[in-house]
Design a protein that fits this description.
Helix content: 25-40%
Number of helices: 9
Shape: globular
Oligomer: single chain
Number of domains: 2
Order of helices and strands: EHEEEEHHEEHHHEHEHH
Strand content: 15-25%
Radius of gyration: 20 Å
């Protein structure tokens, strides 16, 4: 059977079957929900000779409008195997890079904390559920850059959304605080994610982590970005960020998944600092 790889497949079982068909996957094991067990049952629509089965489980996202998702554990042909040496070096670079970043930015911590607290009440750190490698949820940390009622006000501002696809972006988002705007444009709001890197939930280089509601809108091809750990910087980060539409963003992430290597990631790192200084698409 070979090593299993996993990718989130949004929608009903038929979507997972289409993912197998379109991806040329000889076989897949489909699990409904992201937790829970249950008995095996045939997955509908797994035609074309694909070997598929589905595990009935509880809806994991009942509190998010009944988000119905599947993780396809791909048996063959979907994810190209990573060199063990590449994985070891990448993880070593992640740990060393995160520790170095924490040491370099630590002197700024009192200033950032003070500015956030002076402008608005509430926690300094904003923690949000994001989707990581192979569909695993984790708490992603950022310095809080928005007002405390940001989630509630999002519904009121949906008509102003300037982003395409599943993303939500407003250039002059009224929910962003003055200090938050500076933190976002300088990318300092991402500083706490160095802790996520040390925990192994993120990498220095990789697709930016997205929230479950956005992942629910993925096509099977876009879901391939979940084959790798999310990262602090990526092709999207150095290519214009919010100036790109959602499909362009997803295409860049898929390019990274296909081409990922140490030399490719070094190239992304070398282009990250100029992109941060230029602040192109940062808001």
């Amino acid at each position: 059977m070979g090593d299993l790889g996993e990718v989130l497949v949004p929608g009903p079982a038929a979507s997972a079957a289409r993912c197998a068909d379109q991806g040329g996957i000889p076989g897949a094991h489909l699990r409904r929900g992201w937790r829970g067990g249950g008995s095996l049952a045939p997955a509908s629509g797994c035609g074309s000779g694909r070997r598929c089965s589905a595990v009935k489980g509880v809806d994991y996202y009942q509190d998010r409008g009944g988000f119905d998702a599947f993780i396809a554990q791909v048996v063959e042909g979907y994810d190209h195997p990573e060199n063990p040496g590449y994985r070891l070096i990448k993880r070593t670079v992640d740990i060393c890079g995160a520790l170095a970043g924490l040491l370099l930015l630590l002197p700024l911590l009192p200033f950032i904390v003070t500015m956030i607290k002076l402008e608005s009440s509430g926690p300094v750190i904003f923690a949000q559920q994001r989707v990581g490698r192979r569909g695993r949820l984790f708490r992603c940390y950022k310095f809080r850059s928005m007002s405390l009622d940001a989630e509630r006000r999002k519904l009121e501002l949906e008509h102003l959304n300037e982003a395409s696809g599943a993303a939500f972006k407003i250039k002059d988002d009224p929910r962003i605080t003055g200090v938050g705007r500076f933190l976002r444009r300088s990318s300092l709001d991402e500083f706490p994610q160095l802790w996520n890197i040390l925990l192994g939930e993120m990498s220095v280089v990789g697709p930016r982590p997205q929230i479950p509601n956005e992942v629910a809108e993925y096509t099977p091809e876009q879901a391939r970005r979940l084959l790798v750990r999310p990262g602090l910087t990526c092709l999207w980060q150095i290519s214009g960020r919010s100036q790109l539409d959602f499909d362009e963003w997803m295409e860049l992430d898929q390019e990274y998944v296909r081409k990922r290597s140490l030399t490719f990631e070094i190239g992304i790192l070398l282009r990250t600092l100029p992109a941060v200084i230029e602040r192109k698409g940062a808001y």
